[in-house]
Structures are given as C-alpha cells and as structure tokens.
Amino acid sequence: MILDGKCPTGPVEKSWDKHRFDMKLVNPANKRKYKILVVGTGLAGASAAASLGELGYNVEAFCYQDSPRRAHSIAAQGGINAAKNYPNDGDSILRLYYDTIKGGDFRSREQDVWRLAQVSNEIIDQCVAQGVPFARDYAGYLDNRSFGGAQVSRTFYARGQTGQQLLLGAYSALSRQIRLKTVKMFPRTEMLDLVLVDGEAKGITIRDLVTGEIRVHAGDAVLLCTGGYANVFNLSTNARGCSVTAIWKAYRKGAFFANPCYTQIHPTCIPQAGDYQSKLTLMSESLRNDGRIWVPKNKGEKRAANDIPEDDRDYYLERKYPSFGNLAPRDISSRAAKEACDDGRGVGPGGKGVYLDFRDSIKRLGEHVIRERYGNLFEMYERITGEDGYKVPMRIYPASHYAMGGLWVDYNLMSNIPGLFVLGEANFSVHGANRLGASALMQGLADGYFVIPYTVAPYLAASKPGKAKEDHPECKKSIEDVKAFTKKLLSINGKETPADFMRKLGNVTWNNVGMGRSKESLTEALAKIPGIREEFWKNLKVSGTELEVNQQLENAGRTIDFIEFADLLCRDALNRDESCGAHFRVEHQFADGEAKRDDANFSYVAAWGFKGDGVPPELHKEPLEFNLIKPAVRSYK
Amino acid sequence: MSGHSEHNTKTLKLIVWRQAGPDKPGRFETYTAKNITDHHSFLEMLDVVNEDLIKEGKEPIVFDHDCREGICGVCSQVVNGVPHGGHERTTVCQLHMRLFKDGDSIYIEPWRARAFPIIKDLMVDRGALDRIIQAGGYTSAHTGGSPDANAIPIPRHDAEYSMDAAECIGCGACVAGCPNGAAMLFTGAKVSQFAALPQGQVEAAERVANMLKEMQDCGFGNCTNHYECEAACPKGINVKFIARLNREYLKSLL
Amino acid sequence: MRFLSSSVGRKVLMAITGFFMLFFVTVHLLGNSSIFIGPGALNTYAEKLHSLGPLVWIFRGFMFLMLAVHVFFGIMLTLENSAANPSKYAIGRKLKATFASETMIWTGVLLLSFLVYHLLQFTVRVTPDIMPDAVANRPGDVYKMVLGSFRITTISLVYVAAMATLFLHLSHGIQSLFQTVGCSNDKTLPKVTMVGKLVSALFLVGYSAIPVLILAGILKN
Ligand SMILES: Cc1cc2nc3c(=O)[nH]c(=O)nc-3n(C[C@H](O)[C@H](O)[C@H](O)COP(=O)(O)OP(=O)(O)OC[C@H]3O[C@@H](n4cnc5c(N)ncnc54)[C@H](O)[C@@H]3O)c2cc1C
Ligand code: HEM
Ligand code: HEM
Ligand code: SF4
Ligand code: F3S
Ligand code: FES
C-alpha cells in the first residue's frame, strides 16, 4: 500500500499556516465533552496534556513513573534548538529546516520538518514564560551555543540539564492543569493494550503498577507520547523503564511502525564495565573538542595508558579523517571506535573502550582551563569509574541513544488508526535517518504545545463524544486479553529472569544490528531472535503475583515486546538495502566510510503493518518528496 | 586489556527493610551480596542480589529506579542511616561499590516520613511532593502568545540563582533526612526559583502561601533548621532557599 | 489567623519571642555584671530597676507573654514534628544536625524549669534562710542574697548547669533565628552561626562567672 501523509499542498513555507487555517475547530462549549487519553508525560506528553487541558478538553494522563516529572526527557543534557537568530549569525527557519533535512539524510517528510522549524521559536518563548532558567549572558539576554556540528549558534541550554528544566517547565504547566481539574493524572500506570472500537482508538488498557489492577480507560482519542525504544539494545543511555511496549501494542492492533531500523548511537558514553551493567551513561560530546581519541597500536597491549609511548598510540580519527579529526560526526566516530575494538585493540574491562585523552590539552592550556570547561563531566566520570580523567585518559565507547523510527503518523500526527495520535520520540516524523543534537527536545515540545492542540481538532470535530464507554465489549475483551497475557507470564516458572533475556537479546541486537549492519549480520539476527522468543515462553521465571507491585512482571512484559520488536527492526534494516544517516549497511559505503544512499530505490518511509504472530509484516511505503531543497550527498570532509 | 587491573570481588552483608504493603508490618532481612566488584553501582549490586532471589523462588527486593544516572530523582534508599548514602552530590543509583569494603554490613531502608507512606519494601509514595507543586509551583503562563523570550532581560546573577534552585530532582531525600520530616528544602527550592525571576513575581504571594499550606496539609513537619536536608541533597540544594522561602512568606503577608 | 496556622508563621513567632528573650538575657547579664564592680553597684542597679514602678510590670507582662508564646509554639512544633517523622532509621547517623539542634525542646524545658526555680528564689524570694528580710524589704540587699545563695555548692552547680543549657539552646537558636526570619544566605549563615556560638559562650562564661567566683571565694562581702 502506498501511504499518504496528507500534507498540505502548495509551497512548503506556507504549509503550516495554510493547514492551520484549513483545519476544523471544536466548539469551545463542546471541548469538555471530549475525553483525551495522553499516555506518557515526557516533554511531548506533558506539554500536550497541559495544552489540551487548558483548551478545555477533558484529559487523562498516564505514566509509569511515580511522577510525571521523571520521564526520561529529564536526562537530556545538551540543549534545545530554535531558529531565533539571537546571535545574528545567519540563522533562520529556512536554515534550521535545511539542517534538519540534511541531518536526516533526506529521509524525513519535509512539511513536518518545516513546521518544526517554524514553531521552534515559540517554544523558547513559551518556556521562558514558564520560568525555565535558561543560561543568560551578562546583559541578561539568552545565551546560545553551537551543537552537533551546526554552523550557527542556535542551541538554548540550562547548564547541563536542559531536558530537566524543559520537562520541569512542562510538568509545572501540567501540574497547574491538574490543580484546575482539567487533567487527571495516573502515575505508576502502564499501558498494556490499545482498545479499538469500530477501527478507531477509543481506549487503553492499563495495569496499575501498585495494586496490579487491570482496567480500561475509554476516551475519544488516544495520544501516545511514550518515548523511544533504544533499550532494544539492552544497554543504552535510556532509563531502565523506557520500552517499546505502548507503541508495540498499538502496532499489534494495526498501527504502522515506520523506519524501526533508524536508531542513533552516541559516541561518547562511559564503557560497559561488566555483565551486570544496567545502563550506559552519556557524557557530553563537547569533550571531543579538547580530548584526543586513541587506542594502542598493538593488540593485547598490557601497559597502562600513560606508559604507552607516543609511537605505540593510534590516534585513529586524526589519522583517518584529518580534516575533522576527533570531531568527526557521531556515526563515523562511533563506527571507528567499534572497528578498533573489534580489531582487538580496545581498552578497559572487556576490551570495549577507547581512550579520550586530555594530556595534551592539559599541557597546552593548563589543568585549570580544562577543569573550568568540563569539571562537572570529569566529576561524573570519576564517580562512575573511580578514575581521575585529569591523570589517566578517560575511556569511552558508543552506546545506543535515540530512536528516529516510531509509529507512522500523518501530518496531523495521527497514525493510520483514526483517533490514535503519536507524539515525540514515539513517532517517526521529523528526524529522518538521523537526528541532529538538540532537536529531539524541540520536537517533543513542538508536538505537544504547538501542533497537537490544533491537529487533534479535525478528528474530534468529526466524531461524536463519548462513543465508547468502559463497559463496551471491546474494552472487556481487552481486559481479558491483558489478564491472560499476565497470567501466562507468571505461569511459566522456568529458570531465567527477564534480565537474562534482555542480555541475550542485547547481544544479538547490538552485535548484529548496532553500528554497522550487513545482510549476513541481519539474517543471522533474524535466525536467532525467534529462538530467544521461544525460550522466553518456555524458560521465563517471574516470582510474585499479579495483584501487587511486581517489577519482574513489568520487566517480563517489556522484554517480550522488545524481543518481538527486534525482529521487525532487523527486517526493516534488511529491507533498507542502502546506507543512510545512522543506518549503516556495510555493503553501501564510499571509500572514506561515508554512508552511500540510494535515492532511486529507497526514498520512502517504510511503514510496517502487523499481520499476526509468526506471519511476516506487511510493508507500506510513503514516498518522500523534496521541493524546497534537493537531496545531496552528505559530506563531512 | 591494557592499562586496567582486574578487581577483586567483595562479599557484603545487606540488612534490608522488607514490607509487603502500606499497612503490613515491616522487618529487616539479611542477605549476602556476592561477587560484587568496584564497578558495580549500588543498584546493580541489588540487581545481582535480586536475580539470585528470583532464581531461588523468593520475592526480589522492590526499589524505585529508572534513569540510573542521578537525574530522574526516583531512586530512594537510606543507606546506613543516610538518604542516598551520604556521599556528596550522589544519588543512590550513582553510589559505587568501590566506596564499600569487603565484608561490610549495609543497612538499607526506605525513605521514612509520615507524608511518604511505604508502598512496598524500599518503594515509597512521594505524591505529596507533586501536590505541593500543584498548589503553586508554576507560573500561570498559557500555551501560546508568550512575549519574545528576550523581551525581558534577566540579570545573569538572577538566572544563575534561579537555576541553582531549579536543579532539585524531587527525590525527597531532604524529607527523608530531616529529623522533622519537613519538605522545606524542596518547597524552598521551587519558591526561590520563581522568586528570582520577573515571570514569577505576579503570583509570588499566592504561590508561597498555597505551597506552604499544601505542605502542611500533606503531613510534613516544620523546619527547625537542622540542615540535614542540605547534607542529604544529591543536588547540593542550599538551605539559603529555605531562608528565601521564609522571606517570601513574610513578604506575602504585606 | 492564617499567620498562626502557618508553619513558617509560627516559626517566625518562635524567632521573635526568642529574640526578645535573647535581648533580656543580654541586658540581664549586663545588669548582673555590676556585681563584679562591688556590692554597692548591684544594689544600686536593683534599686534603679525597682524605682521604675509600673514600667517594671509592663515589662514583666511583656516578657511573660513572650515566654508563654515561645513555650507554647515550641511544644506544638515539636509534637507536630515527631508526628511527621514517626519512625527512626536503624542507624541514626547525622551529617549536619547537632546535639544542640536536636535537643532544643529539652534544653527549652530545662530552661523553663530553671526560670521557675530562679524566680522563686530571687524574685518571689522563698528562701528566707538566706535572706530573712528579703520579702518585706524590696529590693533589699540583693548582693547579699546572691552571695548567700551561691555559697551553697548545689545551688551554684544548678546555676552552672542551667547556663550550659542556655548555651546549648542559644548556640543553635541564634543562627536559627536569622534563618527563620529569612535574614540569611549561604554567605552569611556560617558567620552568623559562628557569632551565635560565640555569643552563647559569652553568656555561659559571663553568667557562670558569678556562682563560680562566689564559690571560689573570690567574690565576697
Ligand atoms: C541521555 C540522553 C541525552 C539526551 N540529550 C538530548 C539533548 O541534549 N537534546 C535533545 O534535543 N535531545 C536529547 N535527547 C533525546 C530526548 O531527550 C528525547 O528524545 C526526548 O526527551 C523524548 O521525549 P518524549 O516525551 O517523547 O519521551 P519521554 O521523555 O521518554 O517520555 C516517555 C513517557 O511515556 C511514559 N510511558 C512509556 N511507556 C509507557 C507505557 N507503556 N505506559 C504508560 N506510560 C508509558 C513514560 O512514563 C514517560 O512519561 C537525549 C536523550 C538521552 C537518553
Ligand atoms: C531564656 C529563655 C529562652 C531563650 C532566650 C530562647 C531563645 C530561642 C531562640 C532564639 C530560638 C530560635 C528561634 C528560631 O529559630 O526561630 C529558640 C528556639 C526554640 N526554643 Fe527557645 N528560648 C528560651 C526558652 C525556651 C523555653 C522555655 C522553651 C520550651 C519549653 C524553648 C523551646 C524552644 C524550641 C523547641 C525551639 C526550637 C524551635 C526552632 O528552632 O525554631 N525555648 N529559642
Ligand atoms: C548566674 C546567673 C544569674 C544571676 C546571678 C541572676 C540574678 C538575678 C537576680 C538577683 C534577680 C532578682 C532581681 C531583683 O529582684 O531585683 C533576677 C531576676 C530574674 N532573672 Fe536572673 N540571674 C541569673 C541568670 C538568669 C538567667 C539565665 C535568666 C533567663 C534565662 C534569668 C532570668 C531572670 C528573670 C526572668 C528575672 C525576673 C526579673 C523581674 O523581676 O522582672 N536570670 N536574676
Ligand atoms: S531539595 Fe534535594 S533532596 Fe530535596 S527533593 Fe530536591 S534534590 Fe532531592
Ligand atoms: S533538615 Fe529539616 S529542620 Fe529544616 S533545615 Fe532541613 S528541613
Ligand atoms: S534512578 Fe534516576 S536518580 Fe537514581
């Protein structure tokens, strides 16, 4: 099937304004009658729930944490982009649009990207009005920095805690609506199924994570704002609870999953120390400005880092990419690190790490300068590794970080299931095959504050409020299904824990579908995953019961969803027989290791439809068009 | 594997608070954590213990955790009598086992305060902190139609002060550490964040009064300036924000 | 009143009343110190005070009110606080709280008992053995009265113990007062704490000097 994103026609620059005018509105007096279910209260969900509540809709919001303030958006460090052009360095909506399209390697939908760039400025205004304490210069105006290889300074930041401050801003707006009783908040609640009534999304089935109660919340529209699936690699920079579950359940109910193979790897994370490791911690990429990356020249090097003489060190990025050196783009530098380690020259426990050495810059600038620039990062590094980065080189390694893929949505952020909207990292919309630094926060807030309040209206205006109630047969059936699923997980009584299975899955996904992918590695993964799945249903061990706090039960459910999803991820990666952005098929590269796109055959969004367990999913394509700029080859030389 | 020595493993005795539910009686249980290295984080050490418990068919220890990098504020354990273990600016998820010696005994307890009922084992209900924010921890800015972000310059000093306060991760260690079970550091930080900014002025009087009232209604105690909260706070939130809260309260009476 | 039901409001009352009592102990110490000048000085001072007539009573009434409010809210706050934190940790390790900060209610109660005792002794004068004509003849020879009392070792010891209690109460109380009324920040707090402890120590030394010197026989008729 050829999919249609239902984008406004006409000039891209006018598309959002035109669309906004064309859209139907919901009569203010009627808004109260519509109940909107918002799943997830990260940047996307909290901003959406707050804005919709303020508009007068009757909103119910859900998150699995104990408070909306803890969504994983809180962890974002770097910053948020906007085309304000405050530094007067030539930025504009057009340039932000251009950079995002190019960064996504021409695999995103241009009207969506334009809209994002256009509303980016309003986001900053909104956040400042909320009291987000962005960094300021001595004149009292907002400060910007450049980020992620952009040539303009457009990144707004709040120390190293931008995501936290933006989320607290959205959370405070949400809290205000909760107080005003326009929004009802359900924390410690996990969505485990989507309820369709006559093919439209009219409810969700949830498990109360404290009492274990399974019940349905019926509504007139469902918004999934449930974040990304980077944890499919087991270890990632995401929080432990981040899962694919919500969107996976929606996929199983018919929502299309778009571009699952677009996953981003971050080059500067603290390496894994052992099998028991539970997550990987990101360190700001800015470290690469002054640190030099190297590995020993010789395999099996036994000397301590500082004892290895200059001649026995391989500064591989400087060697391979002389013009960019240690600042080579994320994907290139990640892959180069993996190559060095695969070559047996990795450092640290398990040999999965490379050195990030500040010796030379300390010599050149003095320790105090380095301390001033990166003091907090060195502190964090020492807290985790126990090593002093000023004295011995830091060790870094790439880690799974962000998911560009997600549920397919049209221009209104509505999936192919009427009434099911998807926001933030959970949808596929704007980042194409790769996301620029500081753009995910922008997207989450754009979707929640400035897109969904408009785009939910046409759907609602065309549907009668209160179509489905909690006692609808579909709701009851969904409850039965979820209860049966839960019982099944508890009844296996095998020998291995959910964590064991996540480790197994992670081994396959990270090694075969991680930084570099090939037909062989993907075919191998596709052969292994069903085995893991089978073993899961035979040998899983979950203690406790369902009617209480049961974290193992939660983990088990998320694990099996990841296992099932991994299969789709591999299929998509196999289908996309080209390299683009972060999706690197080793078969398709230029001599210098750059990704080689195939626009003639793959300039489309791959949206997969569920056809049943054990049946291959169906591929739907949405062709991509570029009117404002034409696809060109990315080059960082 | 160059330049890196392998570490010996440690064995630790854990004395952990187990409680099946809010109204159930609680007690300490003793467990042994084996094969722990310097690189394990505190929560990873508990993961190891839990994996063993599950395999033995016993109920694993329930504890809150998510980001495991010290920013979400969900982890909440009192380690040897101090919330988060008492290492400067460190949440319990960022506490590393190199700080403990082989053979150490470690007491692990949940946050204790009337306003934080225990849900299970080490997991507590901190909804009271959300309710304090709902009472006024915001500016009533509507979505849309905000003036340009640079329309009102804010002196850098004020912005920094506001950010110092805004760093609070809402973990509740201040309450858990306070001998009075008071939430003054948490509330003070939020009030101060807005008090320092022009955006926060309009509702300043109402905000402080409402947040304080909610704090009391939630069952938190009164501050008698013990400053344990500051010492326990993983984000180094300073008690000057409590003084600021008091000042803002007095101002609100005028 | 909203102020009285507010946590901070009541704390501020504690601080204000504490402040006035602090003022009183300061003046009282200065007045008592005249004992070091000689018998005449203290007696003159006492006579001056008594000659103020109704002013004395207004002042006494005010101070009594301060004390009553301070004690009332002190007990209320303490009760509320222990209700807010009903269970203790297995290991009670403290990082910043001090012995003084944790025992405010106990040092307070001890101070109250001392005050009762002290007033009975020197104001109501129910100690005729020391000064038979004290009740009839006001102010009388205050110097002799004080001297007579403190020659008794137990009385002196009780006083010194009370002064130690006062020291504890104020070594936390003085900085706490500034924090409570919002007159402190990260820069001033350490200094105020230092000065507060110093002042409390001055009270301890100044007040205790009287019984100690008398007992040691240095101050005599
Ligand atoms: C370490 C790190 C650093 C980053 N730094 C930056 C940066 O500097 N700049 C930038 O732009 N981006 C950055 N990103 C990316 C960015 O933070 C995220 O993409 C973005 O915050 C996602 O927001 P979200 O609202 O879509 O999802 P999230 O914030 O992940 O929120 C998901 C919500 O869904 C809920 N949820 C999930 N599943 C369920 C379920 N089944 N049932 C109920 N609720 C559920 C959760 O409780 C949560 O409330 C970073 C990401 C990481 C991991
Ligand atoms: C000479 C007599 C006293 C003086 C000079 C005095 C002074 C003070 C001061 C300055 C404070 C600090 C106030 C604040 O932090 O806001 C304080 C606190 C306190 N006082 Fe007193 N006090 C006296 C007697 C008493 C008595 C008799 C009691 C109780 C029976 C008492 C109980 C308390 C308590 C419980 C506190 C702690 C409350 C807090 O720290 O805020 N005090 N006192
Ligand atoms: C060594 C220490 C002290 C000595 C020698 C001393 C001495 C006296 C004397 C002689 C009087 C009676 C004065 C008169 O009736 O003319 C008096 C009254 C009083 N003292 Fe003290 N005192 C001491 C410490 C304290 C302390 C620490 C406090 C408070 C905490 C205190 C509170 C009072 C009060 C409230 C009165 C009654 C004042 C009045 O009559 O209005 N005294 N003291
Ligand atoms: S003030 Fe500190 S201890 Fe208290 S909730 Fe905030 S971060 Fe946690
Ligand atoms: S420890 Fe408690 S008493 Fe006040 S200063 Fe902190 S809230
Ligand atoms: S788990 Fe997020 S702060 Fe500890």
Structural description of this entry:
The complex is a heterotrimer of chains A (637), B (254) and C (221). By secondary structure, chain A is α+β, with helices and mostly antiparallel strands. Chain A has 3 domains: 263 residues, FAD/NAD(P)-binding domain (3-Layer(bba) Sandwich), CATH 3.50.50.60; 135 residues, Succinate dehydrogenase/fumarate reductase flavoprotein, catalytic domain (Flavocytochrome C3, Chain A, domain 1); 130 residues, Methane Monooxygenase Hydroxylase, Chain G, domain 1. In chain A, 37% of the residues lie in helices and 15% in strands. Chain A has a 5-stranded parallel beta sheet with strand order 6-2-1-10-18. In chain A, strands 12-16-15-13-14 form a 5-stranded antiparallel beta sheet. In chain A, a hairpin with a 2-residue loop joins strand 7 and strand 8. Chain A is globular and about 75 Å long. The mean pLDDT of chain A is 95. Chain B folds into 2 domains: 119 residues, Ubiquitin-like (UB roll) (Roll), CATH 3.10.20.30; 111 residues, Alpha-helical ferredoxin (Fumarate Reductase Iron-sulfur Protein, Chain B, domain 2, Orthogonal Bundle). Chain B starts with 9 loop residues before the first strand and ends with a helix. Helices cover 33% and strands 14% of the residues of chain B. In chain B, a hairpin with a 2-residue loop joins strand 3 and strand 4. The radius of gyration of chain B is 21 Å and the shape is elongated. Chain C has a single domain, classed as 3 helical TM bundles of succinate and fumarate reductases. Chain C is 74% helix and 0% strand. Chain C contains 9 helices and no strands. In chain C, helix 2 packs across helix 4 and helix 2 packs across helix 8. Chain C is globular and about 55 Å long. Chains in contact: A-B, B-C. The interface between A and B is large, with 96 and 80 residues. The site of FE2/S2 (inorganic) cluster has 12 residues of chain B, from loops.
